[in-house]
Amino acid sequence: MSASSIRRLVSKNLLKFYGLSGHRSGLQVISRRCSTEKENEAVHSEDESEFFENEDDLKKSVLDKALAFVPTHGWSQKAISKGAEELGYPGVAHGMFTRGGVDLALHFCDACNQTLAARMKTDADAVLDAPAARKPVRSVIGDAVQSRLTMIHPYIEQWPQALGLLVMPQHAPESVALLQNLVDDIWFYAGDKSIDVDWYTKRLTLASVYVSTELYMTQDRSPGFADTWQFMESRIDNLSTAGEDFTRCSPMQSYTKYC
Amino acid sequence: MPMARQSMLLWMARPARQTCRTMSTTPAGVDVRRRAMLDRIIRVDHAGELAADRIYAGQMAVLGKTATGPVIKEMWEQEKKHLAKFESLLPQYRARPSALIPFWNIAGFALGAGTALLGKQAAMACTVAVEEIIGDHYNSQIRELLEDNPELHKELLETIREFRDDELGHLETGMQNEAEQAPFYKTLTEVIKIGCRGAVWVAERV
């Protein structure tokens, strides 16, 4: 067994040992520290249900719980602390997330993306069974953007703070990757099969629609975010018009036609 | 329990085994490395087949009405099938197409037409050089896929094997059609080979 796998095993269980096992005495804890890998495994099977398969799962559930505290504490270390306490870990467990609120915001975006992708997949599968119910691409995309933005509503008051964290240069690569995942999922499930530069323009323009609508939404006070949806519709309209004009006068069009 | 607290802090301060980055951007259950590999393979092969299609289009534009026309046309038809196959594989694997598609398009046509202008033999020398690189390139992809998981990539492996055999067939055709009698055969093919290797390197990434 290599050193790294031992470390993994130990780290898997340490939190449990030190933080939270109220029923274990300090002495037991100290003896646990010297425990060998074998013992670790025994302990692991002893109360398996309370352990997470790996560190990521643990982190994810802490962050999931932390989301409930965002309306009161913002996208902060404090919210993560509260989330960890909710799970029965000590508040200092926020130390697992070295970047504090950013980790929480990134996790939220990722979770929302995955929910949306799952939803769109179900819809796309349903259309496969009943092709008559196929919606036009434009409305598939509009609905997707709308339902993704709706997921932000519970945290709308704190969302400007999250946006501020996400656009910081050191976090930009990750938030851009999440945005790219989002628009790629939307186009994929909308049935996009583009194989050339269109692939890039479609994703870039949809990202611009998403981000501008998101910014608009943070300032929107209309009931039910009616203004936001109107804003989004007109952004998508602009795109379709621009797309048509571009295709009409594209020199590539004539080039590919004659070659 | 101060000792426990201290150990926990130590554990927290340990070097990150897995960064948050992979955690936050990867959907569960997707092997990141494998996905990146397939993405790269499909992208470069699509770009390559597109360029090959354009090379033959360029040759046909110049030599289409000569006696060599039918030979080139036959190879071109096969390349069109390859291209169509990879065009369907791109969305299937959700691979990103190369951003330089317009460039490969023009560069391929220019290479085909340019060598064809030097004569029939030079056009065939170009075919020989290009297909040799493509054959090698497909072989190394086959090795990579076999190494990863032959069962999982069965379909893709079959496709690539079939295409590799086609491409090496074109190499034979080129040789039979006096490729070696082209002016500056050695230099010409070497230059084209270097260009192709560079293009493969770029298309895998961009």
UniProtKB/TrEMBL annotation, chain A:
Ranges of residues in domain COQ9 C-terminal: 172-242
Record Gene3D superfamilies: Tetracycline Repressor, domain 2
The protein's role, per its UniProt record: Membrane-associated protein that warps the membrane surface to access and bind aromatic isoprenes with high specificity, including ubiquinone (CoQ) isoprene intermediates and presents them directly to Coq7, therefore facilitating the Coq7-mediated hydroxylase step. Participates in the biosynthesis of coenzyme Q, also named ubiquinone, an essential lipid-soluble electron transporter for aerobic cellular respiration.
UniProt family annotation: Belongs to the COQ9 family.
Gene expressing this chain: LOC106816873
Domain Ubiquinone biosynthesis protein COQ9 HTH: 55-85
Cross-referenced InterPro entries: COQ9_C, COQ9_HTH, Ubiq_biosynth_COQ9
Protein's name in the database: Ubiquinone biosynthesis protein
Keywords: Lipid-binding, Mitochondrion, Transit peptide, Ubiquinone biosynthesis
Pathway entry: Cofactor biosynthesis; ubiquinone biosynthesis
Domain of life per record: Eukaryota
Natural source organism: Priapulus caudatus
Subcellular localization: Mitochondrion
From TrEMBL, chain B:
Binding positions for Fe cation 2 per the UniProt entry: 79, 131, 167, 170
Alphabetical list of CDD domains matching this protein: DMQH
A Pfam family it matches: COQ7
UniProt topology in membrane: Peripheral membrane protein
Note on how the cofactor is bound: Binds 2 iron ions per subunit.
Binding site for Fe cation 1: 49, 79, 82, 167
InterPro entries per UniProt: Ferritin-like_SF (IPR009078), Ubq_synth_Coq7 (IPR011566)
Catalytic activity, EC: 1.14.99.60
Reactions that this protein is recorded to catalyse: a 5-methoxy-2-methyl-3-(all-trans-polyprenyl)benzene-1,4-diol + AH2 + O2 = a 3-demethylubiquinol + A + H2O
Annotated metabolic or biological route of this protein: Cofactor biosynthesis; ubiquinone biosynthesis
Location of the protein in the cell: Mitochondrion inner membrane
UniProt superkingdom: Eukaryota
Listed cofactors: Fe cation
Record has Iron as a keyword: yes
UniProt keyword Transferase, yes or no: no
Key words, A-Z: Iron, Membrane, Metal-binding, Mitochondrion, Mitochondrion inner membrane, Monooxygenase, Oxidoreductase, Ubiquinone biosynthesis
Biological role stated in the UniProt entry: Catalyzes the hydroxylation of 2-polyprenyl-3-methyl-6-methoxy-1,4-benzoquinol (DMQH2) during ubiquinone biosynthesis. Has also a structural role in the COQ enzyme complex, stabilizing other COQ polypeptides. Involved in lifespan determination in a ubiquinone-independent manner.
Protein family (similarity comment): Belongs to the COQ7 family.
Stored HAMAP family: COQ7
The protein's assembly and partners: Component of a multi-subunit COQ enzyme complex.
Protein name in UniProt: 5-demethoxyubiquinone hydroxylase, mitochondrial
Gene responsible for this protein: LOC106813298
